[in-house]
Amino acid sequence: MNPGKEQILNGERSAGFDVQACRKDFPILSSTVFGKPLAYLDNAATTQKPQSVIDTIHNYYTGINANVHRGVHYLSEQATCFYENARVKAQQFINAAEFREIIFVRGATEGINLVAQSFGRSNLRRGDEIIISTIEHHSNIVPWQMLAEQTGAVLKVIPINDDGELLLDEYEKMLGKRTKLVAVGHMSNALGTINPVKKMAEMAHQWNARVLVDGAQAVPHMPVDVRALDCDFYVFSGHKVFGPTGIGVLYGKAELLEAMPPYQGGGDMISWVTFGKTLYNTIPYKFEAGTPHIEGVIGLGAALDYVSAVGMNRIAAYEGELLAYGTRLLSAAPGVKIIGTARQKGGILSFTMEHAHPHDIATILDREGIAIRAGHHCAMPVMERFAVPATARASLAFYNTQEELDRLVAALGRVREIFR
Questions:
Q1: Where are the domains of the chain?
Q2: Is the pTM here over 0.85, yes or no?
Q3: pLDDT (tens digit, 9 = 90+) per residue, 354-373?
Q4: 199-234 b/e (C-beta count within 10 Å ≥ 16 → b)
């Protein structure tokens, strides 16, 4: 791959890298489905993996497979070195102040649940308020509902306009002395809306509230600087950023993590155990009970290396071109309505089509080798807000091309022929 090379796609300049060279790094992208070249447009669900990540996981198992932190033999020392190096890579990738502010979890969902059950149960009382938004993924709704039931706290929801944008004036009215936590997505998986989380954090901090940002959709597609955002917690998943499944990151400000009780008990989160009392380990290890997902952590480190080499600014710019191109195509397609038209938006194209259910759309497209997602996208309140049972969703990554979007719209023509 040559991340610095520019090329022209359909008369438009790409964002500073050769997309065809990038595609060669992902073995699955050269495969076929039902005899058609695969066009993978389901990146909001999970991303494909570059060969470097696949090789890194293979090399771990064939060369240094051992448990971390506890062994003094060579393999354990090597595994521990790669594991902790990945923590530093994650720290640098989101610009956390210290490596110990990086907690490895199973994914963004577990990171949110950890904050809810550790920080939330320790700090929220009856009548305190938690603010979320209408466009949250279920993973950033249900844990706070559970916390509210456990503590007697009140859950408040920021409304949106018809473009899928948060109403910040309504958010400002919600904030007050009872606000203890604001939990908001950086980018909507269902609509693509990019929320002004820096401004929202500043507004919340004026009331001494803490802010958690769900970055599962944002981290793969744009530069993220948690110190610039000044959020208190930030979560993301490895499999959304071209890494393995079953691994993710919770960032938390050190002073908050130090004050929070452990989320789970077991090995490696302790410094001393007796039957009378247990002393807990320091952060980040206090929150990493048991044998971790070692190969997942190391694979995540390789994924962060890969996208860093491509360049997050170049990725964001190129995907912006793709989104603009796809928006023009779908807007001109007869019977198609795009759901989610925010001014600040990432590479999500959610849409409905006259006379065709999204599941039927996805099934027909699959026969054309085009992988999209259909359903409520774990965002049922969004569907309710727009009065649709589901949407079809094409979600973009930097290895997608304009030609694949052309194929998408051409295949929608076949859907129209069947259901007209």
A1: 8-30+311-419, 54-308
A2: yes
A3: 999 999 999 999 999 999 99
A4: ebbebbbeeebbbbbbbbbbbbbbebebeebebbbb
